[in-house]
Amino acid sequence: MTNQDFAIAIMAAGKGTRLKSKRPKVLHEIGGRALLLHVIAAARTIVPAEQIYCIIGHEADQVRASVTHTGVSFVLQAEQRGTGHALQVLKADFELSGKTPPENLLVLSGDVPLIRPETIAAVRDAHLREQAAMTILTAVPDNPHGYGRVLRRKEDSPEVLSIVEQKSLTPEQIGAREINSGIYCFNTRALFSKLDALTTNNAHGEFYLTDVAAMLVAEGRRVIAVKAESVNEVLGANTIAEMMHLDAAMRLQNAHRLMSEGVTIFRPETCVIDSEVTVGPDTIIEPYVQLLGATQIGSDCRIRSYSVIQNSTLGDAVTVRNGSILDSAQVADKAILGPYCHLRPESNIGEGAHIGNFVETKKVTIGKGSKANHLNYLGDAVIGAGVNVGAGAITCNYDGVHKHQTTIGNNVFIGSDSALVAPVTIADGAYIAAGSCITEDVPSGALALGRARQTTKPGWVARKKSRNSTQS
Ligand code: UD1
Ligand code: MG
After folding, report:
1. What's the rounded Cα separation, in Å, for the pair 31 and 243?
2. Quick check: CB of 144 below 6 Å from ligand 1?
3. Ligand 2 centroid vs 112 CA: distance in angstroms?
4. Are 146 and 293 in the same domain?
5. What CATH number is associated with residue 119?
6. Which residues form the domain of 39?
7. Residue 263, by phi and psi: left (phi above 0), alpha (psi -120 to 50) or beta?
8. How far apart are CA 394 and CA 376, in angstroms?
């Protein structure tokens, strides 16, 4: 049997009423990624993208736009009348297009995002081995409330009699603990032969895909259950609380992956780490750090508490002190950042450079060993190596309409509290006196002063005091 005999349908058309959110359920994120993208990623390890059919409906345009880059196909379930109806729509789509349906159909739920490829493969393999018409992935969680329950022919038998939804459980069935994960493998012909016979005669007034189990059994077809190895991977995300439970599980899993690769993470349960993040060995991550998006961190770094690093690349031996925020920044080896710095997009920090307290950078290249340690704004600038930017100095990059460039050569000294009004160039080795407002280019090796000359009036305070006392 080859993968040509399989396709995957992902049910993703539901509104997610229980979330009480404007956003469609399958676009809610856990681990920094939409639920549906997690499911598609798992599905793509089993079959090529063009054999994956996403059934979309609620906010279909938004859902399509968010996942179209994966190359999956879409089927529109304009009105959402239940999981059985979702598959009816898929069947109609095959009929309309004249495409031959695959021999077997794996069905995944867009709101069961932690499903692992190995588990989907296990369902597929059991289905083929047991020559079943329907194979159901199940689990036995601590609290089965809310899920459909899978009733087996006998306790230790793989054979299933039916799936009963929570609201339809009889008093004798209410104790049943084996849940339906919403993940199945079907013989497509067997499934399609039953869909038209589904009814909405149930508590939700919907077409339940789960009813197909008992219908196949009634016809003497083989319906089996396969238990998932871990309960977490089949948990559904129907409420925000359930979603955050899965999010925490996924982040912790990410932290454990990094720790298994030699990263030290103190109090990993307090860190928020996205799935794509990579970190080199011997890097130390302190409590309450967030590593988001496509962040890549080298070896021997130290990321101190309360830092938030997103879509950024850090070299080796970088120190990020407490409370630093990095967004789409590039940081070379041995740089020291923070505490409390803000690196905005296109910040390119050179080897061994220091970006200190309350320094904001944007669209800036800062050369090797340069320092901007206190209270600076550096935007739209190219800054050479060995530069010292004094406390409070800033680039004035915006004239109210356009942004302009500041260019600073190597080994320049920018005195404290200077304002560099762009466009302006300060050539190699120049000095800017503290408190200067620099509006003209400064040649190499020059000292530029751009401030009022100081006037000192000796004895002025005593004279003022005696004036005040004679007046009162
Ligand atoms: C479903 C199962 C339940 C199982 C649980 C596992 C049914 C009737 N019940 O319940 O046995 O324990 O999943 O998580 O199937 N969807 C559509 N179109 C629709 C309705 C839903 O595409 O018309 C999609 C949803 O977007 C979602 C998935 O199908 O991704 C499951 O729907 P949901 O409403 O969450 O079903 P559950 O109540 O969780
Ligand atoms: Mg659900």
Report:
1. 10
2. no
3. 7
4. no
5. 3.90.550.10
6. 3-234
7. beta
8. 5
**CATH no. for residue 435?**
2.160.10.10
Rounded to whole angstroms, the Cα distance separating 113 from 39 reads 5
Q: Rounded to whole angstroms, how far apart are CA atoms 59 and 429? A: 59
pLDDT category, 449, cuts 50, 70, 90?
Answer: very high
pLDDT digits (tens, 9 = 90+) for 62-76: 999 999 999 999 999
C-alpha 393/C-alpha 409 separation (Å) is 16
Question: What residues contact 366, with CB distance under 8 A and at least 6 apart?
Answer: 347, 348, 349, 350, 353, 355, 372, 378, 383, 387
Task: Quote the CA–CA distance of 63 and 77 in Å, as a whole number.
Answer: 12
Q: Is the Cβ atom of 7 under 6 angstroms away from ligand 1?
A: no
Q: Is 374 a known active-site residue?
A: yes
With vertex at residue 231, the alpha carbon angle to CA 228 and CA 234, rounded to the nearest 5 degrees, is: 75
For the chain, how many structural domains are there in total? 2
55 and 174 part of one domain: yes
Which residue lies with its CA nearest to atom 25 of ligand 1? 14
Q: Residue 427 domain-assigned?
A: yes
Tell the residue nearest (CA) to atom 16 of ligand 1.
14
| Amino acid 2: pLDDT | 53
Q: What is the pTM of this model?
A: 0.85
**Residue where one domain finishes, among candidates 234, 253, 283:** 234
